[in-house]
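Late entry, evening session. Most of the bench is empty. Finally got around to the prediction I had been postponing all week. Sequence below, unchanged from the version circulated by S.P.
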Amino acid sequence: DLSDTDSDWDDDGDCGGTPDFPLDVLVMPLLNSFLSVSVLADSCPIAQRRNGDQVDGRPPISPLVQDANKKWNRMYHEEVGQTPRAAKVNFPLGDRLVQVHSADDFERKGPWEQIAVDRRRFQSRIASVESVLAPVLTAEHRQNVYKKIYASAATE
């Protein structure tokens, strides 16, 4: 029904959280039966947030999110605060370039090549068998064989 006016969005500024789900965490079930957890730092005005104030200019983070972040960092050995290194690419000077990797024919082969080989082999097999079977399958040869079989059966 497209006329449904009841919305899940918080249009009237009512930003009340529950003890299980603080204001800065959104948990949504996904189709694959996993849960999606999102941090909603700007979901409500600062005065209406759960803690009511900010520390060091950053929005307050719930203990659930902090615990999830610690588990993530422990699991994937990521150091918090480590800046990513800048990648720099250098090319040799002059006209001579060095070939680093060449794709071998073996690496490029796929199932389609085997399918093409099988198709060619089958076509050549048909062509070679056709020269043997063609005289046997002619109407004249079949009529002669029919007469021989039933002529000998009629005389017996």
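Two things to note before I forget:
The helical segments are 63-76, 105-108, 111-133, 139-155.
The chain is about 35% helix and 5% strand.
Will write this up properly tomorrow.
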